[in-house]
Amino acid sequence: MDKILIIVPILLYLSAMLFIAYRVNKIKNSSESFTNEYYIGGRSMGGFVLAMTIVATYVGASSFIGGPGIAYKLGLGWVLLACIQVPTAFFTLGVLGKKLSIISRKLDAITIFDVLKARYNNNFLNILSSIMLIIFFISAIVAQFIGGARLFEAVTGLSYTTGLIIFSSVVIIYTTFGGFRAVTLTDAIQAVVMFAATIVLFFVILRHGNGMENIMMKIKEIDPNLLKPDSGGNIAKPFIMSFWILVGIGILGLPATTIRCMAFKDAKAMHNAMIIGTSLVGVLVLGMHLVGVMGRAIIPDLQEVDKIIPILALKNLYPTLAGVFIGGPLAAVMSTVDSLLIISSSTLIKDLYVTYLDKNASENKIKKISMWTSFLIGLLVFILSVKPISLITWINLFALGGQEIVFFCPLILGLYWKRANATGAIASIFFGIVAYLYLEITKTKIFSLHNIVPSLVVALTAFVIFSLIGKKSDEKTIEVFFEYWMYVANKSTYSPRSHHFYK
Question: Using CA atoms, how far apart are residues 144 and 142, in angstroms rounded to an integer?
Fold first, then answer.
């Protein structure tokens, strides 16, 4: 009976996600093309939705399942490390938000690749970066699918495969048919669910453990190192610095969050999102990782640490309430997967197929192949997830690192350094990825740093050197990307339509 009471709210939650996709698919926006509507939602996001979708996209399985599991093993040191992620929304929107929004509107850009295409005007770069994105996105989606299926397994008692089928089917369907607008709306709901689940579970565990002081005393008895900032040497100082790069500065190179900078309605929405998003990430990251540590006092000998959050919910909440709030980690997984799927689809269709194979494709044709592509990518990832890999946090970190190496230098330096060019961008991707894969495959560590740090240094060095050697960008490109205030000050007379992007 308890299992039924747990499963019913979860099924209702999944059904609600499908219903949203159905309703959104019925929306007809005559003023927008299919690609504009499907991939960026007609640039209509308000502040609250923008904040929610950034948070929901970024806070995935690693933060709600894998992260608390590592916190369970390593203690408060990992909680402190995880809090590096708190400024995600503030940093992303503050550095990229306004400029990327203005430029994307000037260019009618729908994807990150539209911006890169206009900045560098190089077909090889477009194809290379698109392929790299697909590879690392698939790795990231696999990690999320595994996390979602394991959650189902732990909560419902169903097999891993059954959980994978149910979870993946729902995500694939609502992303395929609803597009970006469905993704952002479901993300907003999922972020609210995550927030509520974090708050409720934190206070329930706090009460169950008879207060924070008592919980910490129990943890100290188990292992005093769990209360130390470096977990008694289990978290190396070089790794701490690496984390600042990987989930701090490096997030500016993540396409899934960056694309949000092209889709909000106005400056007010952006500013509100910076405040709301930062506050929410703080609650989610700190709350969930603390729950993972506190769980050590409640269940001191757990073997499958990735399941600490669902197990705590099941053991300490009424069955129906547990089912409702298991939706928190489930929402975290789904909200990341849907964003990765929609961007993967846009990359293959908008940036590769339409650009190089069928420039005159009709709206109806693009609509059909976009939906089919979203579906087939989801199906491919499902197949790759049938045999799960342990510790999904590390898979996710690998995928994050790969994305940052590919996009950080071309995007950031392309927006803020006039001398940046295609030669530098290609060299950055090539040398950065080669270095990253070599270090990962050979398991080589340089000064005990995470491999993202030396790889990004290689990528940045290559970008600067080869940009200085290569041909300078043309005047039209410089005008579009660095004299954008002309557009803001005088929209009526300034137009970049002569730019190569439109030809």
Answer: 5
Give pLDDT, residue 457: 92
Size of the chain, expressed as the number of residues it contains = 503
Residue with structure tokens 């300034």?
Answer: 494
What is the distance between the alpha carbons of residues 432 and 427, in angstroms, rounded to a whole number? 8
What is the reported pLDDT for 46?
60
CB 150 within 8 A of CB 386: no
CA atoms within 13 A on the CB side of 454: 17
- Single out the residue of 38, 97, 91, 58 nearest to residue 257, CA to CA: 58
User: Which residues, in sequence order, are CB contacts of 207 under 8 Å at separation 6+?
Assistant: none
**Positions of the chain with pLDDT lower than 70, given as ranges:** 1-3, 20-65, 154, 174-175, 177-187, 190, 263-266, 306, 324-336, 338-339, 350-351, 363, 388-396, 484-503
- What's the domain count of the chain? 1
CA 348/CA 26 separation, integer angstroms: 24
For helices 327-346 and 2-25, give the axis angle rounded to 10 degrees: 30
What are the helix (H) ranges across 409-421? 414-416
Distance, in Å, from the CA atom of 75 to the CA atom of 84, rounded to the nearest integer, reads: 16
Q: pTM of the prediction?
A: 0.75
Q: Is residue 209 part of a domain?
A: yes
Sequence-distant (6+) residues with CB within 8 A of 158 are: 152, 166
- Name residue 45's beta-bridge partners: 264
d(CA 141, CA 123): 27
Q: Is 450 part of any domain?
A: yes
Q: How far apart are CA 230 and CA 495, in angstroms?
A: 54
Q: Is 327 a domain residue? A: no
The domain that holds 182 is classified in CATH as 1.20.1730.10
